[in-house]
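SAMPLE LOG
Freezer: B-3
Tube label: C17
Construct: single chain, 1010 aa
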Amino acid sequence: MSEGRQRDDVPAREESILAFEDFELHEATRTLVRGGDVVALTARPFALLAFLCRNRHRFVAKDELIEHVWSDVAVSDASLFTAVREVRRALGDSASHSRFIQTRRRDGYRFVADVAVLERRVENDFVGRRDVLAALVADAHRAADGHGGIVLVAGEPGIGKSRLVEEFAAGQRDVSRAWCWEGDGAPPYWPWIRLLRALCDDPRDAPLRDSIAGSPLAVLLTEWTTDAPPIEGHERPDARFRLFDAVRDLLARAAAARPRVLVIEDLHWADTSTLHLLEFVAHEAARERWLLVGTYRDAEAAPPHPLAETLGRVQRNAGVRVEPLGGLDEASVARLWSRWTGATPDVSQLRDTCARTGGNPLWIRALCGLAAEDASPSGRVHAPVREVLEALARRLAPRTREVLERAAVLGVEVSLARLAVVCETDERDLDPALRDAQRRGFVVPCAPGRIRFVHALIQESLVANLSHAESAALHARAAHALVAFHRTRAGPHLSEIADHFCRAAAHGEARNAADYSRRACEWALGRLAYDEAAAHARRAGAALEHLGGGHERERCDLLLAEADALARGGRLAESIVASRRAGEIARTHDDGLRLARAAVGSVGRLLPMGVLDADEVDLLGEALRRLGDRSPAMRAELLLRLSAHASAAGDPATSAARLADGAQLAFECGDARVQALALRTQAYNQAGGVDPLARIDAATRAFERAEASGDPETAAMSLFLRVTGSLVRGDLEAADRDARELERRVERQRLLEVEPFLLGHRATRLVMQGRYAEAEPLAIETARAGERIRSPVGSTYFGIPQLADIRRAQGRAAELAGPFAEAANRFPDQVAFLGPVALLLADAGERERARALLRRAAQMGFDRLPVDANRLALIAMFAEAAASLGDVEPVAPLYEMALPHADLYAVAGHAQAFLGPVSFSLGLLAGHAGRDESADAHLADALERAERLDSPPLVARTCWHWAQVLARRSRVDRARVEALLHRAAAAAEPIGMQLVLDGVRRERERLAAR
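STRUCTURE (predicted):
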């Protein structure tokens, strides 16, 4: 929605004033007035008085008052008594003859005077956004009717995102509002924690609050449970899904009671876990009775920022949209200028202001502030924005500026208790400076005992003015203050403490930085915030750099912790890098157990996908030797990984031996995760590689183990092995049924690791039907999704096989011969790569290069083909390449290797390619070897199977190749050949299968020439 030319007819807002006797309590400005004069009252006593006034119908217990007024700091009852005494002194009240505050032992406090709620119309500085505001109001009405959603308001700093949300929220009921925290100091999921607290804080929502104890939400909302260790099951792989689903359920139950509006501001500062949770709840937002409004700076949301990926994902869901805000028009700028300066700008002044500010309200206000003091910055405001803000700051009183600079170190929103410690004073002494800052538009009060900078750019500008030494000293002071405040309940504050210590690490706080970052990592892991845990581990390692040498084992443990967190969060490539760095340290110190952990992390969670990685084999073997008999589960995993590599190397005996040993250990130690790995290894390798029933059986048992242990990724990959087993059997109905279930799991549980496999399967099914125009973009999407999966052949495994099938069909095989040839060159001792390259080269017309590859494969020996799920597909590629060249002698052994599987279908690994019936390959090998009767039987079977699958490409290829086999016999049945060629062309032409059409034309020309 464009913001360029909007008018503003939004009326002035009304401000609540609580009046009792001759006092007025102004909540908006947090001032107490008596007879027109301001009565001195500091922030926390004011918050206490306001809370009692608002709850005057009841006694408020001590604990409730402390929780509301001192929520950010641990205090004793003495602090409450002191605050009550200050309120009574300000009101001229006393405990013995109370006119205002009554005390009752065991019940607490109650405000007993009559209170009138007055409304005062205040001038509204909200301009230029009427259409956007109306759209948000309409969104809220739809949400109330059960059609909720998410609106993300985007724009540059100062453009008015927060002001728009504030105006919208003022007109709504049941609004819960939260902000993301700049930097690394906030606990994981911080804005969600604040939203959930707000949702459950109303007495009407007591059932919601009571349901939290014992649920996955307990790891976030410890104030309504205990500060005990994380709930049972937090280490289950599906723990984060269970937490996310619990949040979704609580939002749904809260909104079922009455519609809710949720606000999360500054999403560009959100921790990654917060963004993941946003993605999760977005799936069903359109069916809920809540509306979530978020704000973010669009310039900061470009890749590689995590928000960029989140924006792409959430916008795929119904009910989610982005609302960009532009600059205000001249009329709106003129209204703001008049309101903020008390003067009407002339035409030239107005145009100059619009040009210099781009209609940005924050810059307009900065110019107005300078204009009010007869000063004017030179040049364009957009270039020296900080200079304008600094010019305003220079006009502050020295004490005000000092307090604001120290507040800026603590963040955009600041606890007054913490600010007092950093300023080495008490809260009462801060009051004059903060009132001055509020009057000049730098800060505003927010929650009790807290202030917030009017805009983050003001806070950033003040921090930038501090030297590194000054900033570090203030951060150190803040960290030690937090440690003292939260000594008995540090958990929720570890992230903030660690952040302050890390910012002072180079100035004597490195040890504390490392220790508290490690503790923050452990806390985040227990709260299922994997990305934040990894970041804390990384910062702890960086802090160790300031301590010099002698900390290698600690560094190794931090790298392993980082790798574990990254792997749990689906960031596999980064996890592998961290694991390998840990492995280097463990090797140097001859630490077998740490080396084993590093080795397992270094190979990732996936099986080797038909490729022997010599480096991985060496690392796994060394780890197995050094581990000895320690940790049976770890030893079992090493054996199973080595078994999979032996299968990829075409060494079935070694693979079987290691699989047997590893499986025995896995089931003896009772580790369900390793047991599932043993079953997956069996399903993908050994008999499961070529026996679909064995694959389906092992995959089903692996799925059951993974489900029981709460491991959604392993369960999904096991389910996918069942899909491929059904494809090998030719049972498309069963394959599609499991694929639909898998699709639901991937979408709901956000299984990014599984997504490229599923996308590849979809593309393969489209290729099977000859729907190349639909398959090509999906194959490209598969390749992009596959970039997050670390594999030695990742560049040719995901998406590329489908593109290769499409390009071959289109007669453009040469375009993809290069990537496959490059992969073959990277693994010159592995015969598996030669078949796909030879087939592409043969189709591209490079027949001599293709022949050379087939001869090379024959010399290496086809017994070295992987004994896994790729085996039949590789045989099919070699057979078709040889048939295209008219020379099957080099690949003759493949016939006997394929014959036991004549009733199956050749499927590449994880369904990344479907080569058709094995009988098709057998027919080609037999036909070009002169075994006419066998060839006809095999090819007739292949054609029948292709028709049964309703696959035009398979029908076209089978008829074309069968015609070639018949045409090369000494006695040619021309009518039969022509019938097959006609049928091949009829199947190929509607789908644009140029390879077959060109082949049919050439075959007819050869027949005519005979």
